Amino acid sequence: MELKNFSLEGKIALVTGASYGIGFAIACGMAKCGATICFNDIKQELVDKGIAAYKEAGIEAHGYVCDVTDEDAVNALVATIEKEVGVIDILVNNAGIIKRIPMCEMTAAQFRQVIDVDLNAPFIVSKAVIPSMIKKGHGKIINICSMMSELGRETVSAYAAAKGGLKMLTKNICSEYGEYNIQCNGIGPGYIETPQTAPLRERQPDGSRHPFDQFIVSKTPAARWGTTEDLVGPAVFLASDASDFVNGHILYVDGGILAYIGKQPQ
Ligand SMILES: NC(=O)c1ccc[n+]([C@@H]2O[C@H](COP(=O)([O-])OP(=O)(O)OC[C@H]3O[C@@H](n4cnc5c(N)ncnc54)[C@H](O)[C@@H]3O)[C@@H](O)[C@H]2O)c1
Ligand SMILES: O=C(O)C(=O)C[C@H](O)[C@H](O)CO
């Protein structure tokens, strides 16, 4: 039996919002498996820093400024990549924001902003790449979901609504385009050490650990925060031929949080 390989040689990947953080780590991992990396971010300054960081990692990445919520800009980005690099084989919808505000104190505009980046944008970017994937006869779409695709918590109503919707968008793209050999799956990271979660890990004025930091470690069987490197193997798997029969799945990379009721207070 031939082992379907994990190589990404000859594949072109677009990772959104990938100047740093989870997207940067996933892109670096895909590059090490042979993929050509294209990425975007919202500001030239971030793209420039990203290109330098990829170069430092030995990767010649193609960087573009593009706000993923702007449909015209996204369509222009995909057309430019197709012209300059080639047809996108792998899309990672990674760009995202969070606003931690109690729901009744959050404005509708703030709610909409989170939905726009975390849910509408993955729709926009996926819609932009799918036609060429159909023509090419294959495609991989990986949506970066969250624990909040399954669970709620105080202050993250918009984010949870977006990430829950992103889980179902993932399943719907699978349903609608699986027959064209397009696999759309999600990765659901646990709590990962990146700028997005930095406020949850800040030391207290007395030097003690943030209460949320202690809470998450107690809720994680692995008893630690995740790192961006923990996400690379799962992303490469879902981007490779080895996952051609995996579709509509959310792969939770959470150290066991979703399986664990929590430790009895001592
Ligand atoms: N860090 C975690 O614990 C965690 C866990 C689960 C899911 N996630 C998700 O993973 C993804 C990456 O998270 P992260 O922790 O690396 O976040 P981050 O805040 O460190 O990075 C997010 C990136 O997205 C970019 N971005 C934001 N809005 C954009 C827009 N409109 N257009 C283009 N780029 C935009 C930012 O500039 C940044 O480069 C997000 O979707 C996040 O919701 C993070
Ligand atoms: O709960 C929060 O405040 C978060 O920041 C959620 C994390 O970013 C992440 O999405 C958990 O999977």
Automatic annotation (TrEMBL):
<dbReference type="InterPro" id="IPR020904">
    <property type="entry name" value="Sc_DH/Rdtase_CS"/>
</dbReference>
<protein>
    <submittedName>
        <fullName>Gluconate 5-dehydrogenase</fullName>
        <ecNumber>1.1.1.69</ecNumber>
    </submittedName>
</protein>
<dbReference type="InterPro" id="IPR036291">
    <property type="entry name" value="NAD(P)-bd_dom_sf"/>
</dbReference>
<dbReference type="GO" id="GO:0008874">
    <property type="term" value="F:gluconate 5-dehydrogenase activity"/>
</dbReference>
<comment type="similarity">
    <text>Belongs to the short-chain dehydrogenases/reductases (SDR) family.</text>
</comment>
<keyword id="KW-0560">Oxidoreductase</keyword>
<dbReference type="Pfam" id="PF13561">
    <property type="entry name" value="adh_short_C2"/>
</dbReference>
<dbReference type="InterPro" id="IPR002347">
    <property type="entry name" value="SDR_fam"/>
</dbReference>
